[in-house]
Amino acid sequence: MRQLVYNAVKCLECDQTIVSYHVHDYKTCGCPNGAMVDGGTAYGRYGAMDMDRIEKIDIYDDDDFEVVRRHAVRGSRGPNGDQPLTYIPICDMDDDYLKAVIEYGGAEWHINLIKKEYESRNKGDVR
Fold first, then answer.
1. Is 110 left (phi over 0), alpha (psi -120 to 50) or beta?
2. Which tens digits make up the pLDDT trace of 78-96?
3. What are the backbone angles phi and psi of residue 7, rounded to the nearest 5°?
4. pLDDT digits (tens, 9 = 90+) for 34-64
5. Could you tell me the pTM of the whole model?
6. How many domains does the chain have?
7. Do 56 and 104 share a domain, yes or no?
8. Are residues 93 and 73 part of one domain?
């Protein structure tokens, strides 16, 4: 089964891309078209007043890895856990961060992507 790693909608009315990062992460663009996305990596749900004015952007774990590594993210609150939540693409994580995530754990599909990123760097396939 394919795993959704990036769930977004681009509103063609206001040109805003909105991303849903986790389950029940319901977001809207705020323009009159009201583009919305929900579901994070668990499921994709989207809509708008005019569905012809949105572009759905789904990236799955079995898509080209160069695309996946730029869209698969890890939530972070900084090294001490006291910063605002940000989402960092795995391609932007340094090697120490990748190793720490592998050690810490998480969803199997996500850890597999982190490992693939780390191994690809060590082989010289990426970066």
1. alpha
2. 888 899 999 999 999 999 9
3. -130, 105
4. 999 999 999 999 999 999 999 999 999 999 9
5. 0.90
6. 2
7. no
8. yes
